[in-house]
Design goal:
CATH topology of one domain: Rossmann fold
Structural class: mainly alpha
Shape: elongated
CATH architecture of one domain: 3-Layer(aba) Sandwich
Radius of gyration: 38 Å
């Protein structure tokens, strides 16, 4: 057959006679099939808008992000809409994973659109690109075109192959690369939002007749990191295997739910995905393998061979933020140097890896979208998707995984003394990274006869931050691992048990702390003997938590017995001996002897001033408790005066933001209130709360304690409704932070009930307190002081709700129990006795003896003035009732009112 040709610049275009270019509109290449349950996203609108924030038209857009976020699907959706919406004359879809693939696709376009001979793909590709260039007006028909370069793997692959800028054409690129060499307007595509991820799973499963629990679906979406590719493949696996998404209500360990299997660290990600031949939406790579090529490319970039081991370290740490200095630390660089040689033959394990090398490795991983590296946020400079972490860990042998975990742990602890105050953001980040290492490979941190210090350091940091429940769970995990690895009698195991007990107690489980310490004391007596310091320390902790569990008398006895032994073994001036005297004084006071406690603290203070000096924290704390018990013994004004002096010294010694300084301010405000200045107490506590929120954050136990005190003194200052509202808000936070059974949560419920009654809803308060009493009996038992206090207030509210007989009967029963448990002289016994006298006087008046009621109330008023002062609500209500019955008795005496 004959041919004819014409020249276009330096390219000779050859037409085959008898063959014409295809007519417009025309599509070159095949668009990927639209994904099932496709979710629209904001980035779709950005593609369609094709303008910058300044309104300038964008002719090339680069949609970039890590593998699996849905770049291809989003580009295909946009292209399909433009094509079906009659917005294009030519659509070219290019699978651009390599330069030959791009050239081949452009050559195909030239073949179909220009009817060119395809013998020289490079020449044909250049002819096609020249055809896309804008032409002079009127020279030929205008062609509206769109070229999509999907999955550009290397910017160099597109060198010389970029479509020309044309007012009638656009180029869209999808890539994992974030190199500056890629031109155009960049659109960073991330994972689905939580709502988009849930909507996708719901829609996909519904298409297959599945309607799973929305809460389980949301939990699964979160565990998959809202990654579109992972969601689609997990959903396909769930449907094909016909297993539940999750079974939150099922406790059976063999439950086959996807969520449970995903939570199992021993299960590989690949085993929970469809076979490659059964992937949904024409996918050709599983989630577990989708990043492997990117890792190879990153590892080949300078500094060669470091990207992969750097990613392995990052896979052991917190996906939400890794401090850069952790990855550039000595242990981290040692790990990178040891494992670089396996990727780069000319490198030896002795070659030093510098901080600059690590920086380069992080930038390489960032360029391939395997991590997000933001040097401007050094505390959380590296972020990584949790499934990239899991897929990376799955590629490691057990030995390599152990090495990476230990290196990550060592990196976190290289300068552990510089960990900041536990409530600061950096400390939270370091804890989160430590917990991530432990979660990923906790058993690998144990070596020989010593556990990795990371366990202890994270647990202590949690405890110091006031996160006692989390700390208790952490130390329980440590105890279990230490027992399995080191044995129950190992010193490290016993230290972990000590910390477990302390944090259980601080988390509100005093009886749990007693159980742990009772068992631990038996073991320490057996292994170390009665005179070992560790044995004495365990006895000290056991005595304390016996008191916190409600048995103040037993705590005082245990401290007295311990003190005898410490005086013999450690001597009178030993710090532990002084601490035991401190605890003995406290629990004697709690057992009812407030004056004795104040006297004991005064004697202890004398010795501490001699031995430890005036600015020692223990000396300052003894001054604090001395003032406290002085107040509880009846001298509220003296307690406030002593705390004012202490606060001055505390600020000088520790600074204004120290936790003990804040605690002193709270106590000072309380004793000023008890001395009669309720409004001033509320003002001081409001100012203190502002500082607590700034220094310790809203969820710290001391912040919650200050809110509790503030609510109380608002009520005492006359705002009963405001106090009830404040307690209700506080209760919500206690339930969220500490759970329903924590003693502080129960006390918040008590405060709400009390002030609900004081605000006028006595019946509602009585109902709330009756429910509270049921929980106190279940959680703390019938003889706990908090249970007895709940009974006291329930009886009062019943009386205020006009059930005078019920109040008197309940108080009589309560008094009997107080006498049995605490004895006749305990302040709580006397309070119950006085309250019973109050309601008996009211009953007497209601029975017609107004004069007798007034006389009884007058005698009670003297007691309450002496005990509480003139401004206390108990004093005020007694005065009101006294006036009422005196007035009524006077009227009856004049014969104007019958005794009926």
């Amino acid at each position: 057959m004959s041919i004819s040709g014409y020249h276009s610049g330096d390219i000779t275009t050859v037409h085959v006679h008898g063959r014409e270019p295809v007519p417009w509109p025309h599509q070159v290449g095949v668009l990927p099939r639209e994904a099932a349950a496709f979710q629209g996203r904001d980035e779709t609108n950005q593609l369609r808008a094709a303008v910058t924030n300044c309104g300038i038209a964008v002719l090339c857009q680069v949609l970039r992000g890590t593998g699996g976020v849905g770049k291809t699907q989003l580009a295909a959706h946009y292209a399909r809409q433009a094509w079906t919406g009659d917005e294009l004359d030519v659509l070219v879809w290019v699978s651009a994973s390599s330069r030959p693939a791009i050239v081949s696709a452009f050559a195909q376009a030239a073949d179909e659109l220009l009817a060119l001979e395809s013998g020289d793909p490079e020449r044909s590709a250049r002819a096609f690109l020249r055809w896309l260039e804008p032409k002079p007006p009127g020279s030929e028909p205008v062609c509206r075109w769109l070229v999509v370069l999907d999955d550009v793997a290397d910017p160099a692959d597109v060198t010389g192959l970029w479509p020309a800028k044309s007012p009638y054409g656009r180029t869209v690129v999808t890539t994992r690369r974030r190199d500056a060499a890629l031109p155009g307007h960049r659109i960073d595509l991330g994972v689905f939002t939580p709502d988009q991820a849930v909507a996708y799973l719901v829609d996909f499963l519904a298409e297959h007749g599945r309607h799973d629990d929305p809460n389980e679906i949301r939990a699964l979406a979160q565990d998959l990191g809202h990654l579109p590719l992972a969601l689609s493949q997990a959903a396909a696996y769930i449907v094909d295997a016909d297993i539940p998404v999750g079974c939150s209500r099922c406790t059976h360990r063999q439950c086959p739910s996807y969520h449970r299997r995903l939570a199992d660290r021993a299960t590989s990600l690949a085993s929970m995905l469809p076979e490659p031949s059964t992937l949904p939406d024409d996918q050709n790579t599983t989630v577990s393998a989708t990043w492997s090529l990117s890792i190879e490319r990153a590892d080949s970039l300078n500094p060669a061979g470091l990207a992969r081991p750097a990613l392995q370290l990052a896979a052991m740490l917190d996906p939400n933020g890794i401090p850069q200095n952790v990855l550039t630390s000595g242990p981290a660089r040692t790990y990178l140097a040891q494992h670089r040689a396996q990727a780069v033959a000319e490198q030896s394990t002795g070659d030093e890896v510098t901080e600059l090398d690590v920086w380069g490795a992080l930038r390489a991983l960032h360029r391939l979208s395997l991590i997000d590296h933001n040097p401007d946020s050094p505390q959380q400079s590296v972020r990584i998707h949790q499934l990239i972490q899991r897929a990376t860990r799955d590629t490691l042998s057990p030995q390599r995984r152990s090495q990476a975990a230990r290196a990550a742990g060592d990196a976190l602890l290289e300068d552990c003394e510089s960990w900041p105050e536990p409530h600061l953001p950096l400390a939270q980040t370091l804890r989160a990274n430590g917990q991530a290492v432990i979660h990923c490979a906790g058993d690998a941190l144990f070596s020989g006869s010593k556990h990795h210090h990371l366990f202890m350091h994270v647990g202590v940091s949690l405890s110091d931050a006031g996160q006692f429940t989390a700390a208790a769970e952490h130390f329980q995990d440590l105890v279990n691992r230490a027992r399995a690895s080191l044995g129950s009698d190992h010193p490290e195991t016993m230290l972990a048990r000590d910390n477990l007990a302390a944090n259980r107690g601080e988390a509100g489980d005093a009886r749990g702390a007693v159980d742990v310490l009772t068992e631990l004391l038996t073991d320490r007596l057996r292994i170390l003997g009665p005179d070992d310091p560790s044995t004495l320390n365990t006895r000290y902790g056991l005595a304390r938590w016996q008191g916190e569990a409600g048995n103040a008398s037993r705590a005082a006895e245990a401290y007295a017995e311990l003190l005898t032994d410490q005086l013999r073994i450690q001597g009178p001036d030993h710090p532990r001996t002084l601490s035991t005297r401190f605890g003995l004084a406290r629990w004697r006071g709690s057992a009812g002897d407030a004056a004795g406690a104040a006297e004991a603290y005064a004697e202890l203070l004398t010795d501490q001033l001699r031995i430890q000096g005036p600015d020692h924290p223990d000396t300052l704390e003894t001054r604090h408790l001395s003032a406290e018990w002085r107040g509880r013994a009846g001298d509220a004004a003296g307690a406030a005066e002593a705390l004012t002096e202490l606060l001055t010294d505390r600020v000088r010694a520790l600074g204004p933001d120290h936790p003990q300084t804040l605690h002193d301010r709270c106590c000072l405000a309380t004793w000023r209130g008890r001395a009669g200045d309720a409004a001033g107490a509320a003002v001081s506590l409001a100012a203190l709360l502002t500082d607590h929120l700034r220094i310790q954050g809203p969820d710290h136990p001391e912040t919650l304690s200050t809110r509790f005190a503030l609510a109380l003194w608002r009520g005492e200052a006359g705002d009963a409704a405001g106090a009830a509202e404040a307690y209700a808000e506080l209760l919500t936070d206690h339930l969220r932070i500490q759970g329903p059974d924590h003693p502080r949560t129960l006390r918040a419920r008590l405060g709400f009930g009390i002030w609900q009654g004081e605000a006028g809803d006595a019946a509602g308060a009585a109902e709330a307190l009756a429910e509270l009493l049921t929980d106190h009996l279940r959680i703390q038992g019938p003889d706990h002081p908090d249970t007895l206090e709940a009974r006291y207030w329930l009886a009062r509210c019943r009386g205020d709700a006009e059930d005078t007989a019920g109040a008197a009967e309940a108080l009589a029963e309560l008094l009997t129990d107080h006498l049995r448990i605490q004895g006749p002289d305990h302040p709580d016994t006397l309070s119950a006795q006085n309250e019973l006298a109050y309601w008996m006087a009211i009953r007497r008046g209601e029975a017609g003896d107004s004069v007798g009621a007034a006389k009884a109330l007058a005698e009670l008023l003297v007691v309450r003035l002496q005990k509480h002062g003139p401004h206390h609500h108990s004093t005020l209500r007694t005065k009101d009732q006294l006036a009422h019955w005196r007035r009524r008795g006077s009227i009856e005496a004049d014969g104007h009112l019958s005794t009926d």
